[in-house]
Write a structure and sequence with these properties.
Shape: globular
Number of helices: 19
Radius of gyration: 21 Å
Distance between the termini: 34 Å
Number of domains: 2
Helix content: over 70%
Oligomer: single chain
Length: about 475
Amino acid sequence: MFILYLILIVLLAAGLFFIRNRKFRTGLLGLFLVLQTILPVYGFLNLNTPEAGGYFSYDPLGIILLAVLTILSYTTVLHSWSYLQHRGDSDRNQRLYFAALVLLIGAMTSVYLAASLGIMWVLIEITTLSVAALIYHERTHLSLEATWKYVFVCTIGITFAFVGIVFLGKALQEGGSVNLAFSDIPRHLENVNSFWLKLAFIFMLVGFSTKMGLFPMHTITVDAHTVAPPPVSAFISTTLMNAGFVAIFRTYALMAYTPILEWMNNILLWSGALSIFVSAVYILKVNHLKRMFAYSTLEHMGITAIGLASGGIGYFAAILHITLHSFVKASVFYQIDQVHRIFNTYILRKTGSYFNRNLAGALVMLLVLVSITAIPPSGMFISEFLVFMALFQSGNLIAFILIMILLTVVIYALGRSILPMLFLPPPATEINNDVTIKPQESVSQFILLLLAIFLAYNPPPAFVKMINDAILQLPG
């Protein structure tokens, strides 16, 4: 099944690029969405079933994030279509955009389901090449600079990850194995030299952090957010960072029963804390709407890392948090496209009275502010509460207090930036009076935000079981 999926993805991407008939391309996009919907359903019905000679597997974590990706594929294709039409892009640029988007979704799907460390490493690099074409879509000097920086730093990061895999291979040799399958590695690491394991983990953490966006490898994702089309920014900030989370989660799980567990937890904890610190500092002073939410993503990736480092209920909270964050943050960037169409800028001080120009969109932004800052009834309040409960139970009181202070700063900074945009009058010269936003353009954002609330406060039993199954491999 999965090999057939990959073949069809390549054929659909080729068709989207080479076929000039717009109606036929629309049909191909519809076919792609049907294909992308079938896969998680099939995977759910065949959990833990190996595919393609054992190189891929429908494990619970992969299926959870694949379901998130599938939902956001629908909304991203929809908003991409709207974005391209309002920009008046050439037919060739539209064909390249959708071909690259389909390849990116296929690559991220493959990362989620990879059952081998080597295969996952290769596929993560493919996501870099796919998203690069989308970051450069607007063909400006800034987008060119951000694209090359993204490709260059991600390639260096993937090289770091490869070095980490080499060190892990050295440890595996001591354990009598050379197999890089996730299911086989842990049982060969019980009595190996911890020095090799520490080197392997730190190199892979740094390398895969280029995708998850953790400090100190966060800068390229912030630049990519700034210049990429808003629907692409939605993917960079959610499903692409989820690919980085999968890589780090699986790396952590491989070594969770070795003597370096406490050391790994400390590394993840302070990497997460530093990510939140950097986020708080920059959100206080940033005046660019997309960059502000890019730093907000850095904050939430830090919270996710802290959940993973805290253990216990923190494992559950980390997966729940990154799921809810995906829906909330995607809705933010879809809405930012509407903000830009009205004010012709992403600069916050040049915006204002958004409620008077786009009532539905302003309600989305207000709900986003509540959701992203984890203020009840935000679904992220539940996941963050569980993270902090795990952090408290693990005895990290200094980190607990520090992070609570930093999150208070983030709440203040986001409110100080978003509320004036909603209620205070903007400079008259900045308003585009010719643009009218239809309320139905905000429907998808309301659905995603309400879905995040629903999954937190009334999660389906199957969803809870999937998360619990995903963390069975971790220490209790």
